[in-house]
Write a structure and sequence with these properties.
alpha/beta; 12 strands; binds NADP nicotinamide-adenine-dinucleotide phosphate; 293 residues; six-stranded parallel sheet; 9 helices; globular
Length: 293
């Protein structure tokens, strides 16, 4: 099997580039090798590689910046994805693509199901939803994996920011009325690898069915709860300057992009189809932080 991984230097892409290695011939590309801004270059790249599977970890992920860079967000998250889906269909490749809880508005009281109606609150969410729609309209065989609050020992993320601030500041105020599941990029990559193996068998047996799946850690917390856990684990590892962590409401921390209050996604469909049990967010966090220590 020939797997084409796009976005090998992102949080999820970096983990995929390692986790997918034993599954076949892996061709991993970064932005220099394939820039999604140049959509005209995408068909030739895919046609020349002729992969059996494309795993797309590329995304424009600057949620606040997207409010003033709508075209850039849509070019990467929707238009380029549409071209990739169409080319994947032409070469008979399965497309695995990641999406986000930000396709929902967060007004539901319980975790979102895959079939719940999306209603993004921000440009990033709109662009990711347009990417999902383009894949589904293309006729390609696909899996869309929606995840949430990604952290990793590399890249830009809440964990890395909190660790830096906890060593610089004495007090911090963190939003406590947005609820979600922090999800380790490595768990996303490992889960994807298990999925790849199963769908390879399903495709060979002609039983494969495309679909959207929610892929997040088990459990939930607020950004404040996430920060508390990071500080708790970090303070056992090193000296911190941070003395107080105050919970605040979203309205006290205005950002250009509006965010959903409820980012919880139900993962029962993923467990039922692939037999995978998602680990608790705090267990993953401790493992990731052991690596950072
Ligand atoms: N981060 C989150 O909290 C979060 C939450 C929910 C869903 N997701 C979804 O999960 C997936 C993986 O996200 P992530 O956290 O791994 O994102 P990330 O760390 O921001 O990585 C995104 C990757 O996309 C690449 N990229 C951006 N624009 C590009 C372009 N024009 N051409 C080619 N490559 C480009 C980046 O390249 P450079 O390294 O060169 O910048 C980077 O390698 C995405 O689909 C994202 O929407 C993420």
């Amino acid at each position: 099997m020939k797997i084409l991984l796009l976005g090998k230097n992102g949080q999820v892409g970096w983990e995929l580039a390692r986790t997918l290695l034993p599954l076949g011939e892996l061709i991993s590309l970064d932005r220099q090798q394939l820039d999604f801004s140049n959509t005209a270059a995408l068909p030739e790249a895919i046609a020349s590689i002729r992969p059996n599977m494309i795993i797309n970890a590329v995304a424009y992920t600057a949620v606040d910046k997207a409010e003033s860079e709508r075209d850039k967000a849509f070019l990467c998250n929707a238009h380029a994805v549409e071209v990739i889906a169409q080319e994947a269909k032409k070469v008979g490749a399965l497309l695995i693509h990641y999406s986000t809880d930000y396709v929902f508005d967060g007004t539901k009281d319980t975790p979102y199901l895959e079939e719940d109606t999306p209603h993004p609150l921000n440009v990033y969410g709109e662009s990711k939803l347009a990417g999902e729609a383009a894949i589904m309209a293309s006729g390609v065989e696909y899996l869309i994996l929606r995840t949430t609050w990604v952290f990793a020992s590399r890249g830009q993320n809440f964990l890395k920011t909190m660790l830096r601030l906890a060593a610089e500041r004495e007090s911090l105020s963190i939003v406590s009325d947005q609820i979600g599941a922090p999800t380790w990029a490595r768990v996303i990559a490992q889960t994807t690898a298990h999925i790849v193996q199963q769908v390879q068998r399903e495709r060979a047996e002609k039983t494969f069915e495309s679909g959207i799946f929610h892929l997040t850690s088990a459990g939930d917390t607020s950004w404040h709860g996430f920060a508390q856990k990071i500080v708790e684990v970090a303070s056992a590892q090193r000296a911190l300057t941070l003395r107080s962590l105050t919970p605040i409401r979203t309205s006290q921390y205005p950002t250009p992009a509006q965010r959903p209050h409820n980012s919880r996604l139900c993962t029962n469909k993923l467990t039922a189809r692939f037999g995978l049990v998602m680990p608790a967010w705090d267990v993953s966090l401790e493992l990731c932080m052991e690596e950072l220590c």
